[in-house]
Amino acid sequence: MEILKTKIALETFVSPLKAIGKKVALVPTMGALHNGHISLIDLAKQSADIIICSIFVNPTQFTDLKDLEKYPRPIEHDLEMLKNAGCDAVFMPSVDEMYPKEEHWHIDLGPAEFLLEGEFRKGHYQGVTQIVKKLFDAVKPDIAMFGQKDFQQVLMIKNMVAHFHLPIQIVTCPIIRESDGLAMSSRNIHLLSLDRENSLVLSKALKFVVAHFNDNSLRKLEESAKALFELIDGVELDYFTIANGDNLQPAQSKNEHHLVALVAAKVGKTRLIDNMIIK
Ligand SMILES: Nc1ncnc2c1ncn2[C@@H]1O[C@H](COP(=O)(O)OP(=O)(O)OP(=O)(O)O)[C@@H](O)[C@H]1O
Ligand SMILES: CC(C)(CO)[C@@H](O)C(=O)[O-]
Ligand code: BAL
Questions:
Q1: pTM
Q2: Which of the four pLDDT bands, split at 50, 70 and 90, describes residue 33?
Q3: Any idea what the CATH number is for the domain that residue 59 is in?
Q4: Which of 80, 83, 142, 229 could cross-link to 237 by cystine, CB 3.0-4.6 Å?
Q5: How far is the CA of 149 from the centre of ligand 3 (A)?
Q6: Is 32 found in the same domain as 148?
Q7: Pocket test for ligand 3, best of 61, 67, 70, 155 (most atoms within 8 A of CB)
Q8: pLDDT tens-digit profile of 74-93?
Q9: Which catalytic residues are annotated (predicted)?
Q10: Number of the ligand 2 atom closest to the C-alpha atom of 150
């Protein structure tokens, strides 16, 4: 597995492969890898010849400095996991490599930018699309894999790709969960034992809404889900919503084509997100 730290090294690796017609997949990550990330690598292998994983903790998408400072960075373990998964190359640039000079970035991502995560992490999706565009420019992949766990992120990245007319296929990969239902996430490492137990309320509330979808109105379902959070000390709900899966506006009718339940909550000091597609 190649370890590439500069854009020049990346280009030297990838250009000859593209020149002979190899299909290149990019799996962007911030490291602290788990089986959710590995599932993205596995799916990439099914649709491309060369798999490149990027590891970069992108400062411009963090709205909370403490969150950035304590983001886990177990790089040796990550490299071992990627090698075992059959990844061809890892792109792990420094902050200076990706941001050599101060720059302004602002693109129109549509009204969904300001909802949900965009409301609680203001400017987050400008930072995410800024770095993903840089990664796309550096790798020039044919296809890029993203997790459904970051549902809104996939929507924002698709909007960015449309904005720049990039010829890149964006694939949404299913959420990988622990056996008790908790969605795998790099930040789960911060959950102390009681928090770990309490964290199950996210997936339980989502499952409740999916299971009882036909029994009640949308607003009643949301109320019942929210009530589950009130029962637990040490969990602070940011939002629980049933939304239109195409634009993330609160769903107005059960007849809408795509519906998704989305949740974000602070469990102890750790903020978690999760979602389940209803239809
Ligand atoms: N449980 C999961 N199942 C499938 N994909 C996942 C899962 N967790 C993360 N991903 C995807 O992996 C990619 C990289 O995510 P990232 O490195 O931020 O990891 P993470 O676990 O989401 O970390 P955190 O949410 O704590 O930042 C993203 O596209 C993300 O959606
Ligand atoms: C897509 C991404 C790698 C951009 O930094 C990040 O937001 C993530 O890990 O989901
Ligand atoms: N997985 C999304 C990246 C972030 O939380 O910043």
A1: 0.98
A2: very high
A3: 3.40.50.620
A4: 229
A5: 10
A6: yes
A7: 61
A8: 999 999 999 999 999 999 99
A9: 37
A10: 10
Same domain, yes or no: 199 and 160: no
CA distances from 240 to 103, 212, 227, 236 (A): 35, 15, 10, 11
37 CB within 6 A, ligand 1: yes
Kindly write down the DSSP assignment for every residue of 57-121, as one continuous string: --GGG-S-HHHHHT----HHHHHHHHHHHT-SEEE---HHHH-SS---------GGGGSTHHHHS
Choice from 26, 30, 185 to test ligand 2 binding pocket (greatest atom count within 8 A of CB): 30
Q: How many domains does the chain have?
A: 2
ipTM: 0.98
CA distance 135 to 98: 9
